[in-house]
Each structure stands twice: as structure tokens, then as C-alpha cells.
Design goal:
This protein is of the alpha+beta class. It has one domain: 2-Layer Sandwich (Peptide Methionine Sulfoxide Reductase, Chain A). The strands form 2 sheets. Strands 7-6-1-3-2-8 form a 6-stranded mixed β-sheet. Strands 4-5 form a two-stranded antiparallel ribbon. Helix 5 links the parallel strand 6 and strand 7. The longest helix is centred in the first third of the chain and has 19 residues. The protein starts with a helix and ends with a helix.
Length: about 200
């Protein structure tokens, strides 16, 4: 019995150590379906989870969040290995996949639930996010203001299962939505504003 308890303790210690070696970053950039793929491609990203954060409702549903009245943002949580990818590199991926100049939402999706935001969990993340935001603003050729918010992270609620990895489960519908929403076209325009 003692040996079994010892084995269990060693296993729990190993699991805890593995968890300590991962980081979690939370970003909102409009439709969460479109935010998962760019992060999933990054070496060192372990997983992405679509969900809701920043609002006042507990355990919100997609219907509640999409009404725009819950206070929540459609967002993603990125679990990553900080030995392979840094938080700064994740910020770089984030900025390449949002329109930082639109306060009404992202691309064809308008409303408070689609606003862009970086949710920070400590002072280091806040400082890196603020510096990266200032760098984006300083690159703007037209002097546009970056309206992307930097907010303290709150409770994150995973979205319903059918939203997870939507781009893989429904590739044709996903591609049509992304094209019809004008996401890639606007991202190209944003890059031109920053070059």
C-alpha cells in the first residue's frame, strides 16, 4: 500500500511539474473560429480553446454571448510551451490576425462580443502587450489609433463543443465564412497601413 501511495505521489508531482512548464494566453480577435488556426500552426502551441471571457454571466452560452448583452468577448485560450514559443511571439501572431483599428468589432462581425482584446494575467504580460500595442500604433502610416483593449484576465468559459476546432471539422463552411466576412482582405489592408 505504501508503495502504491508513493507511486501516486511521484506521478502527481510529475504531472504538476509538466503543468508548470506550460503557459496560457487569452486573446479576443472577433470570431473565435478564425483565431484558432494561426495559433495552432505555431511550434510550441499545445492547444487552442474557443470560449468566452470578460463578461458578467457565469457559464454563458453562445446565444447569450452573441446577443452582445453578456459582456463577454468571443476569445481563445492558447496553451503553450514557453520553452518553445514566447509570449511575445504569441503577441506577434495575434497582431497579424486582427484589425487593431476597429472599435466596433472585427471584420464583418460587429458588436461588443467581437471586439479585439488581449487579456493579461500578470505585470510582465501587461508590459509586453502595452509595448507591442505602442509599436503597432507607431507603425501606422495614417496615425490611426490602436483601439485593441488590454484587460486583466478573468474566468474563461470554453465554448460549446461544436465551436472547438471548427475550421477542421467544417472546412468548407469555415472557408466560406472567412471569405464572405472579408477577413483576409482586411488583414492585407491593415498590413499595408503598417508598412
Amino acid at each position: 500500500m505504501r508503495q502504491l501511495i508513493l507511486v501516486l505521489l511521484v506521478s502527481l508531482t510529475s504531472i504538476s511539474a509538466a503543468w508548470a512548464d506550460t503557459g496560457v494566453a487569452t486573446f479576443a480577435g472577433g470570431c473565435f473560429w478564425c483565431m484558432e488556426p494561426p495559433f495552432d500552426k505555431v511550434d510550441g502551441v499545445i492547444s487552442t480553446t474557443s470560449g468566452y471571457t470578460g463578461g458578467h454571466l457565469e457559464n454563458p452560452t453562445y446565444k447569450q454571448v452573441s446577443s452582445g448583452k453578456s459582456g463577454h468577448y468571443e476569445s481563445i485560450q492558447v496553451e503553450y510551451d514557453p520553452h518553445k514559443v514566447s509570449y511575445q511571439e504569441l503577441l506577434d501572431v495575434y497582431w497579424r490576425n486582427v484589425d487593431p483599428f476597429d472599435a466596433r468589432g472585427q471584420f464583418c462581425d460587429k458588436g461588443p462580443q467581437y471586439r479585439a482584446a488581449i487579456f493579461v494575467q500578470n505585470k510582465m504580460e501587461e508590459e509586453l502587450a502595452e509595448r507591442s500595442k505602442q509599436a503597432i500604433e507607431s507603425k501606422s502610416r495614417d496615425g490611426l489609433e490602436v483601439v485593441t483593449e488590454i484587460l486583466p484576465v478573468g474566468k474563461f468559459y470554453p465554448a460549446e463543443e461544436y465551436h472547438q476546432d471548427y475550421y477542421m471539422k467544417n472546412p468548407v463552411r469555415y472557408k466560406y465564412y472567412r471569405f464572405a466576412c472579408g477577413r483576409d482582405k482586411r488583414l492585407e489592408e491593415v498590413q499595408q497601413l503598417l508598412n
